[in-house]
Amino acid sequence: MKYIDEFQDPALAARLLDDIRATVTRPWALMEVCGGQTHSIIRHGIDQLLPDELELIHGPGCPVCVTPLEMIDKALEIASRPEVIFCSFGDMLRVPGTGRDLFQVRAEGGDVRVVYSPLDALRLAEENPDREVVFFGIGFETTAPPNAMTVHQARKRGIRNFSLLVSHVRVPPAIEAIMQSPDCRVQAFLAAGHVCSVMGTAEYPALAERFRVPIVVTGFEPLDVLEGVRRTVRQLERGEHTVDNAYPRAVPPEGNPAARAMLDDVFEVADRAWRGIGVIPDSGWRLSARYRDYDAEHRFQVGDIATLEPAECRSGEVLQGLLKPHECEAFGTTCTPRTPLGATMVSSEGACAAYYLYRRLDLPTRPGSRPTPAAAPTSAGMAAVTVPSREDSSVV
């Protein structure tokens, strides 16, 4: 693995941008699938540095954002029970459910704890045998293996007071759903490198061939993103549609066989609802039959949950790439990281959060107000841009 600084070199960025400008001859629309890539793009101003012919569309690649409201409300119901210790990563606590969030449940007396690993939750179950410990397992193929391993360990060690609230989703079916949408403008994809580091690239050639779109596996540093864009534009200009691995330092073609074996053992593929999008067939996982006793939905019988999305929140359109965050009337006014209407504003990978953190001064803060001027970044200054840290921001 190279040092990160080597992938933020302004001189190399300028060379990649020159190559992209020399290659592009017509408008193209590319979608980055990963929320981490979205934050890198907005933080470093990559979308502003690219030629006007290229549009980067932000896809549904934020795991917190696509967790459906119904699942958030199930989490709130379980976390409110006095016998439960409810464990989650920190970026889920402020995600709004119907009328409240996990912070409010904790303020009302619920035992809600932030953990840094699902194994921390398993340790709590061992230390508190008289309590039910639930871990909120969300995310794409990247976070699914450690959650699967934790359930495997719980069964192996006979820990019966642990369960997993599962909301895992898979990238390839989402790409298929995006391409089948009548409103789709996407002509190529930057695939998420960390997902492919687990699953490999075998699922993507069929998608590239079926929909005739290039799919380039891409990393997360500025040079990674620019190289992914460069390779994608070259394919588009040549009329090609193949899968190209631009992140070989982390992604072998076969992925991680041990992680994939764990997924096959603990989970089974299932239909899954995506917040703001709807149900996508075969787009997620649920616990397989031999591990069903560790499924928190079954253990706590929370199947009958009524949900209500805020009418003014347009995060569903943002997640589908139909709307840029600042084009939502609520952005930065009634919807902020401290008063979010949707998960895209509070997640550390949400597109709305990225625009609020790094692009807010470029945009009107109130309807009808005048935008504050902000100079577009230059490739020479890209790596030296000063941005607020996670600790300085109000994003969880």
From TrEMBL:
Keywords per UniProt: Iron, Metal-binding
Start and end residues of each stretch annotated as Disordered: 367-396
Positions with biased composition (Low complexity): 367-384
Pfam family, one: HypD
Domain of life: Bacteria
NCBIfam families, per database record: hypD
Similarity comment: Belongs to the HypD family.
The name this protein goes by in its record: Hydrogenase formation protein HypD
Species of provenance: Streptomyces pratens
